[in-house]
Structures are given as structure tokens and as C-alpha cells.
Amino acid sequence: MAEELMDFDEAVRRYDPVIGLEVHVELGTATKMFDAAPVAFGGEPNSRVTPTSVGLPGSLPVVNKKGVEYAIRIGLALGCQISEHSRFARKNYFYPDLAKDFQTSQSDEPIAFDGALEIELEDGTFFTVPIERAHMEEDAGKNTHVGGADGRIEGADYSLVDYNRAGVPLIEIVSRPIEGTGARAPQIAATYVRTLRDIFRALGVSEARMERGNVRADVNVSLRESSDAPLGTRTETKNVNTFRSIEQHVRYEIQRQAAILAAGGAVLQETRHGQADGTTRPGRVKSDADDYRYFPEPDLVPVAPSREWVEQIRAALPEMPAAKRRRLKGEWGLADEEMRDVVNAGALDLIEATALAGCSGQAARKWWMGELARAAKDREIALEELPVTPGQVAQLQALVDEGRLTDKLARQVLEGVLDGEGDPQQVVEARGLEVVSDDSALLAAVDEALAANPDVADKIRGGKVQAAGAIVGAVMKATRGQADAKRVRELVMERVGA
């Protein structure tokens, strides 16, 4: 049964939305957070586990130092303070994908706290998201629901559990209530998660592939009557892993909760399940922290990173994505809108890599935002999944810059590269696409075209130099487009004495 919704514009006019996000990122360590089982995507179910992964009696956890280092990197990048003393806790709850009946996490003593992240919205304005904490924990396993539509639990006949993911290192970044968003709440939520995804990649702590669940967000939404009123009752839509879905679910919850409040009802504090159509459906009544009966993990010692180590990590941090965008925008001479288009297309790193391979930033942008963007759209894949490397694109542009290819020929060469025919030079040689630069060969073609079109030659001699275009076109056709049109025109004018 469809739920009552209020028009979105009416909802944000009558109520003040407050959002909050809990973003989980799987770390790209070689092994799990507390045992030596390997971390890798896929694999046969339950093939990447140890007794510790599934909490068998007698097994003991050991903290992954690289996981702690990655946590500190993330905390520093988000402007957080790094705790001199943090500890793990047991978060107790039952669910089939949690074999131990508790999750090893951090409660009142997280590794990082009190940060903020400035995000840039599509219109170029900025918004600061306050961050409460970033803490370490382990991932749970994965349930597969069999018999339900699209693998969902609704209507499923039974469920299977794969513990390969159980114990994979996670960092959970918890925002404070994000106020003052108004109608921009959906966009701010999605942009915040996208900005975090870019930071994770820049830090090298995760592949951050949302389609694999490397990054996912729990999205909290509540409404209140005005900005100075107490916070309203929130709902939490769990495990959202696309930017579009984040926007849709925030928008839907604002409309749904507004309709409830306007009718005099009360919003139920609960978890919600996001649906493919952008709606949300009830999950379970939301637990508060007390319900999880947190207590210190007795099998793990506190984490106490030295100040020297923290400062070493800080000094080694790479350039952050926002700073990189500002720098590259200036180096490449792009307008604000052009840079936003590059970022939104996911082409920034590809263009930068192409420029580092010896191509100008403008030329690299032309290829990735033009021919290659069209190729990706036609193949229905992401730009980064195209079978062409930044180095090959740079090689292609070098052939153009050297005058060995025209833009038209270069597009044909690119087609060959995308079809797996080799590097640009190999495609040029195999297809015979190099520009004809031998004047003797060009003169022969010019003479043939002039002899076949004596009336055009007379027009050129009579001062109608624009008529030379017909001769140039004939030569280009005769050379299969491999002649330099500018040089052909010069030879035509020389031949007719104009």
C-alpha cells in the first residue's frame, strides 16, 4: 500500500529537515581487522574465514596495525582530533550474518573525533558538514535471500550466509545533525558521501567502489517545525550505496514524514529499507545505544598511537581532492562549470593521468569528455571501464600534435584501440591511417583533381578562391582523408598560380 506523501516544496516550506549520515568504508587492507583471513572481493562463499572470523571458541583477535593507520589517515583528512587512547567494545545484537552475536566496534572512545568536511555543491556553493567521530569496527557477513524479488528479504523462502566479509576492516564516520539544509538536504547528503568517497580513494585506504558495497551510508532524516525547535524523531534508511538513491531516500522521507506530521500523527523511530524506486519501507524499531549493551572488549588492549606516529602519517597525507581540483582547474584553464562537468563525469583522475603521460590538460579533457564519453555511453559502462589507458590517449594526441594524424584519423585510430587492436601506433600501421605528408604524392592528387575539374580551376584563377574547397575535398576523398587539408589547399593555390 502506497504511503501518503506531501509535495516536496510544501514539505520543506512547512518543516525544517535535519539529516545525519553514518558512512561505512571497507578498508583495503590485505587481511581482516582482527585475524589473518584475506580481504578480497568475491570468492567461494565461506572460503576466506578463520576461526576468529566466525568467533569459534578459543579463537582470539589481534588488531590489524594497517587498519589503525588507515583510520588515522581518514581522521586527519576530515580534520578530526586523534585520540591518544581508544579502545574496542562489543556491540551486542543477534543477526544471522554476525556469528559471534556481537560486533567488535568502538563506542565511547573512538580513534578520531570532532571534525568537519567542507563540500562543494553543483552550483558552486559550499556547505560544511560537522563530523562527530570516525571509529574502527569489523564488517558483518552477507545474507543472500532466496526466492524474493531482486534478492530482497520480502517474500524470500530462505536465506544463506557468507562469512567471507565478516571481519573486514570498517571505518564508520558519523556526522553530527546536519542543520540548515532546507530544500538542498537531498543534494547535500549525496554530495557529502561523494566527497568522502573521493577522499578515501585519494588516501589510498579503499577502492571505494560503491557497487561492491565498499562505501555505504545509513541515512537519517527528521523534521521539526522550525530551526529553533527541538530535533524531531528520526528514521534511518540502512545501507544505501548509490548517490542517486541517497538523494531519493532523503527526499522521500521528508515527503513521507511531512504528511504524517501534517495529519497529526507521530513519526516512528525505526530503520527503513531503501527500495529500487526511491521509496523506503519499514524495517525494525530503531534501537538506541543502550540497547546494544556496549562493554569493553576484554580480548583487545587499548589503541594508543604515539604522537610521533600520528605526525608521520599527517606529513605523508596526499593532496586532498578539493585542493587538487582547484589546482588542476587553474593549470588546465577551465571554467568553474567545465571543472564541475569533469568531476561529475568521473573523468578528473583519468584526465590528470593523461596529462601526466605528456598530453596537455585541455587536449586530455577533449578526448575524455568527448569521444570517450560517447563511447562509454554507447557501451553502457563507466569511463574508467573503457579498454583504453590514459597513456594510450596521450600517445594518440602526440600523433596529432606531430601532424601524423588529423582529428578525423585520430578518431578512427581510437576506435581501433577500443576494439582491442593495440596501441595507437599499432593501429595506425595496421590500418594505414597516417597522414599523407609527401608533397609529391599530394601534388599528383591535386593535379588529377584539377584536370577533372577545369571549370573550378578557372574560377580560382578568376579570384573565387573559395572554390578551392571543391578541389581540396576531391583530394581528401582520393587520399581517404589522410591528407593534411591545409597543405593541400596551399598546393592547389600554387598549382593554379593564385
Please sum up the structure shown.
Heterotrimer of A, B and C subunits. The chain has 498 residues and is of the alpha+beta class. 39% of the residues lie in helices and 18% in strands.
Shape: elongated
Distance between the termini: 81 Å
The helical percent reads 25-40%
Q: Strand pairing plus helix content: what structural class?
A: alpha+beta
The residue-averaged pLDDT reads 89
Radius of gyration: 30 Å
β content, as a range? 15-25%
Residue windows where pLDDT falls under 50 for at least 5 positions = none
Q: Looking across the biggest beta sheet, what order are the strands in?
A: 2-5-6-9-1-10-11-12-13
| Domains, number | 3
Largest sheet: 9 strands, mixed
Query: How many β-strand runs?
Result: 14
* Tally of helical segments: 17
Subunit structure: Heterotrimer of A, B and C subunits.
Catalytic activity: L-aspartyl-tRNA(Asn) + L-glutamine + ATP + H2O = L-asparaginyl-tRNA(Asn) + L-glutamate + ADP + phosphate + 2 H(+); L-glutamyl-tRNA(Gln) + L-glutamine + ATP + H2O = L-glutaminyl-tRNA(Gln) + L-glutamate + ADP + phosphate + H(+)
Domain Asn/Gln amidotransferase: 349-496
Family: Belongs to the GatB/GatE family. GatB subfamily.
Task: Describe the protein's architecture and organization.
- This protein has 498 residues and is an alpha+beta fold.
- The chain folds into three domains: 8-313, no CATH class; 319-431, no CATH class; 439-496, Arc Repressor Mutant, subunit A (Orthogonal Bundle), CATH 1.10.10.
- It has 17 helices and 14 strands.
- It has a nine-stranded mixed sheet with strand order 2-5-6-9-1-10-11-12-13.
- Helix 1 packs across helix 4 (243-262), helix 8 packs across helix 11 (390-401) and helix 9 runs parallel beside helix 10.
- It is elongated and about 95 Å long.
- The mean pLDDT is 89.
